[in-house]
Amino acid sequence: MGENARALLISRGLLEMMSIGKALGANLEAFMGLAGVGDLVATCFSTHSRNYTVGYRLARGETLSQIIEDSEEVAEGVNTTQVVKQLADHYQITAPITRMLYRLLFEDLPAQQALRSLMKIPLGEGEDMGLYKKIAT
């Protein structure tokens, strides 16, 4: 869908990460450093990232079981997605990206369908708008 779609997903992904972190009592400033934005950017753009590789292969139509069978190392994002979805359920956080990733990884939702669904979410829906204010102050 292009670079604009990627930018939208990355920025919404950061906000979703922060919403979950907030529910767990995390310091929101930590998300703006290497462990937050830095890791997110590396995962989204580095062909050396295991998570990037899994996503790339899923987008090409491979299944998670094919990718795991063929890989020597496991991408930590696969297991993390299960845990974060459980946290989002427990804390009643909307987390649309996490929920779509879960369906993509564990319920065989096609990648293109997942992306189309995410791109249809109106701006601001499911987002903790108060986080914007906290970041800006």
Q: What can be said about this structure in brief?
A:
The protein is mostly helical and 137 residues long. The chain contains 8 helices and no strands.
Largest sheet report: none
The proportion of residues in beta strands is under 5%
CATH class: Mainly Alpha
Distance between the termini: 33 Å
The CATH superfamily is identified as N-(1-d-carboxylethyl)-l-norvaline Dehydrogenase, domain 2
The value of Rg in angstroms is 15 Å
Based on secondary structure, the structural category is mainly alpha
Which oligomeric state applies? single chain
CATH topology: N-(1-d-carboxylethyl)-l-norvaline Dehydrogenase, domain 2
Low-confidence runs: none
The structural domain count equals 1
Order of H and E elements: HHHHHHHH
Overall pLDDT confidence: 85
Global shape: globular
Q: So, CATH architecture?
A: Orthogonal Bundle
What is the number of helical segments per DSSP (H or I, 4+ residues)?
8
How much helix is in the residues? 55-70%
Total E-strand runs: 0
What topology does this entry show?
Blueprint: H1 3-23, H2 34-45, H3 50-59, H4 64-70, H5 76-91, H6 96-106, H7 111-119, H8 129-136
Helix pairs in contact: 1-2, 5-6, 6-7
Descriptive labels:
137 residues; 0% strand
General description of the model:
- The structure is a single chain.
- By secondary structure, the chain is mainly α.
- The protein has a single domain, classed as N-(1-d-carboxylethyl)-l-norvaline Dehydrogenase, domain 2 (Orthogonal Bundle).
- Helix content is 69%, strand content 0%.
- It contains eight helices and no strands.
- The chain has helices spanning 3-23, 34-45, 50-59, 64-70, 76-91, 96-106, 111-119, 129-136.
- The chain is globular.
- The relative contact order is 0.15.
